[in-house]
Amino acid sequence: MKILIVHNSYLERGGEDEVFDCEKRLLEKHGHEVTSFILANKNIDSIGTKIITAIGAPFSLLKYWSLYKYFNREKPDVIHIHNYFPKLTPSIFFAAKRAKVPVVHTLHNYRAVCPTALLMVDGKINETSVKKNSWWTIPRKIYKGSYIGTISLVAMVECNKLIGTWDKKVDRFIALTRFSKEKFIEAGWPESKICVKPNFIEREFQESKEKSREPEYALFVGRLSEEKGVTTLLQAWAGNSINFPLKIVGKGPLQSCVEAAANSRVEFLGVKNKADVLELMSKASFIVMPSTWYEGFPMVLVESFACGTPAIVSKLGSMEEIVQPGHAGVHFEAGNSEDLVHKVNWMIANSKKCRQMGVNARQEYLSKYTPDKNYQMLIDVYHEAISESRNA
User: Fold this and answer.
1) Are the beta carbons of 105 and 81 closer than 8 angstroms?
2) pTM
3) 288 with 233: CB under 8 angstroms?
4) Buried b (16+ CB within 10 A) or exposed e, 13-29
């Protein structure tokens, strides 16, 4: 199969960029002819370039024609689009359809529904754009504190909703979880076109080493920011309610708060490479993911499962779906540090059950998140898109 994968990469490499690269290598490994089309968010730094980008964000006629010519020349069997914001614009879907090529689009976040992309404002979940529309975001300058940027995004969201881009110009969407799929359906997207396919870990993990009979430490890995629940995490470990080591890995705007909270029980490790992170995970008694937003598909959880390490997660969105309580971890009320203290102490006091959850987590990884499992799901989506396109 000849597959063209498309991505507007980010200035600071993130999870979407990693997923794009992993899926490309996975498809190549299975013998497919894979071509990448990538635009980077570079040179959008002057007022002029920002205005030009903002004007073109809802639909770019220039991009439409150039992409149509490119797709028509390449003639792939399917086009898989990851991120199109801001340079590629939704015009890419119109160009692909004009070239008569089946289109698959991965819904990594909620930007096509709401300019916030996270469905979160001022540290709280906000689903106004899902239930109504996104015009409310303009006076609040949701996008980077900019009226122009926010207006541009609202125009992109509402115009493409109005003209039926998502109903008519995409053959299959990939949602990363059932929760995400339901949110898009609630926002009016076509249920029959949305498939659920999780992300995966590229390399095969060997069976993780047996955990120590005694607990060692809890681990947090992620961006040190409010939506990741860092404040809740630090509050839980403040005082003497938890007598158990916590290691924190990452960087971000709340790094100074984490550094200030470091003591005999809280250790800040800064940024670590992937091998070191996985080593820390394999030795941890459990990881803690206290996010206060919905998350897309947290790779930290899959990596933890692969290492045979259970998780304590916020009872919220995709985290609640991925971690079955009592099976591969436990839930706590999002933003509630007292409930987090309770669940941490429960895990410590029930070390035998905690270890069994780790065994269960490993089985979850083997049954759902290996490259082979993911490849078959991805190919099935491509075949569905091709069939949809032919019957349109």
Assistant:
1) yes
2) 0.90
3) yes
4) eebbbebbbbbbebbee
Q: Which residues contact 66 (CB under 8 A, 6 or more apart)?
A: none
In a domain, 169, yes or no: yes
Does the pLDDT value for residue 139 go beyond 70? yes
- Closest residue by Cα to residue 245 from 211, 219, 283: 219
Sign of CA dihedral 162, 184, 315, 12: negative
* Token digits of residue 380: 């099935």
Q: 95 and 76 in contact (C-beta within 8 Å)? A: no
Q: Which of 352, 80, 118, 117 is nearest to 228 (CA)?
A: 118
Q: Are residues 285 and 382 in the same domain?
A: no
287: Cβ contacts below 8 Å, ≥ 6 apart: 218, 219, 220, 221, 281, 300, 301, 304, 309, 310, 311, 312
SS3 of residue 79 by DSSP:
strand
pLDDT exceeds 90 at position 202? no
For residue 192, the Cα-to-chain-centroid distance in whole angstroms is: 22
Task: Read off the pLDDT of residues 45-92 as tens digits, 9 standing for 90 and up.
Answer: 556 666 666 777 788 899 999 999 999 999 999 999 999 998 889 999
Asked whether residue 324 is assigned to any structural domain, the reply reads yes
Name residue 35's beta-bridge partners. Answer: 4
Whether 287 and 178 share a structural domain: no
**Residue 287 belongs to what domain range?**
218-368
Q: How many domains does the chain have?
A: 2
Instruction: Please check whether residue 210 lies inside any domain of the structure.
Output: no
